[in-house]
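Q: What would this complex look like in 3D?
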Amino acid sequence: MNPMSAKSRKTYTVKQVAELSGVSIRTLHHYDQIGLLKPAFTGENGYRYYENEQLLTLKQILFYRGLDMKLDTIQQIVASPHFDRAAALRIHRERLVQENQRTDALIQTIDQTLAHLEREPSMKEHELFEYEKQAIDRWGIEKVEISRERTKGWTQTEYDQVNREYAEIHTALSLQILLGSPVESNDVQALIKKHYAVVSRFWTPDRNSYPALGRMYCDSPDFRKVYDVYHPGLAEYLAKAMERFAECELA
Amino acid sequence: MNPMSAKSRKTYTVKQVAELSGVSIRTLHHYDQIGLLKPAFTGENGYRYYENEQLLTLKQILFYRGLDMKLDTIQQIVASPHFDRAAALRIHRERLVQENQRTDALIQTIDQTLAHLEREPSMKEHELFEYEKQAIDRWGIEKVEISRERTKGWTQTEYDQVNREYAEIHTALSLQILLGSPVESNDVQALIKKHYAVVSRFWTPDRNSYPALGRMYCDSPDFRKVYDVYHPGLAEYLAKAMERFAECELA
DNA sequence: ACTTGAGGCTGACGTTACGTTAGTCCTCAG
DNA sequence: CTGAGGACTAACGTAACGTCAGCCTCAAGT
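A: Here is my prediction, written as structure tokens for the whole assembly.
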């Protein structure tokens, strides 16, 4: 007569539990296997039979699973009513927050890379003139005028060529960083020589202005972003190598 | 004499590459196996030998891997220089953003649950008096006075008892929702009878005020939050069941 | 020439939470 | 009694390696 007793007598097959709870039969098998949710009893035919208690436990399991908790953690939680659920939730919350922070950083990185990639086709004049504008602050107007003059008659192809050469040098330098080569090494200095040659197509830096250009690469956020896409720390590495080059090779 | 040619003759063993790039030897084996990064050549002793080109490719691979991209996606990207990296990055970015949104939602859910768990010990008076305050707006001051009178001499244990009974009823009702039981079912109505009995320890609702209490459960955000922790939609289900109960059982 | 230690190689299992067959057995309605 | 529908176990597949285990190779020292 007691409705509760009638209620707890009720049994469910795997399929019924699966449909009621929305999980697959395989999941129930799995939870049985790992001991996360055992059926109320097993028939002598091997069938699993669940009761209301198991349904409630399953509901809890699914709640925690929905929070991306690992099954063994969930097992700890649902196994004992004395387990500190609040503590477990707080710990898990922390994990999620950190995950989120990491993901935010990744998205930022992607945005920077995208900006770089998308700027690349139109990077030619834009990049170079940006360069010139910044240079004005450092060595006065004359150099910039020279640069503008020298590039006056340039065709698209020539701009592309310059960009390709820059890209090659930057890539090769990234590799040298990876290899741990010091900036004084022959390989690196050879690359800087190429770099100097490219720069010289706009204007001719000297012992003072060439290292200053390197420092500008480090200081200007716009340049930094471009370099960091190749390799973190490339700007500093390049600047140091340029300084060395100027000391040894420039009058 | 050309530094580039000297550079590309240089070979590296797995250990060297591993140390230069920071990945494990096993990872290099794995990348070779799946064809993501093959060594430049293999010695007749079976040894893997890498060159600068592979190092650069590996650097790219690690960049994309650092963004949580799957290796087969990365393979598409690094395999062909014509592959639209920007598009791949944008797609991946979208995935990350959605992940982040989901995680935010999870954190919110955890916060709600924590609030519920932490309120529980002090839920006794707080909860009940909150209840009363809300009740004032609906049935005037007399009922509240009655409630306050009836609970005057209650001990802590009695408050705890009431809360336990509520919790049991809510849990059992959640189960009934899971089972798809209609609110008219005997099981559900039996539970509502218990609910009515518990409520009657504070005051005695009638055919009109009992369903109104149910509606309040739905309308008040404070109550809703408590019910939603048990089961989404529990507030509405309970309200409907209470209405039914009042119609059939209350004068 | 021989040994030894460091490094390289190939399996192959473990991890996570199930999905997906495949083959067999049980149950109940007609 | 038979067929349909459901239940069972066993075992592989997934992603990206970590971690042995067992055997091979190389360079250097004796």
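A: To summarize the key features: Residues 1-7 of chain A have pLDDT under 50 and may be disordered. Chain A has 13 helices and two strands.
Q: Very helpful, thank you.
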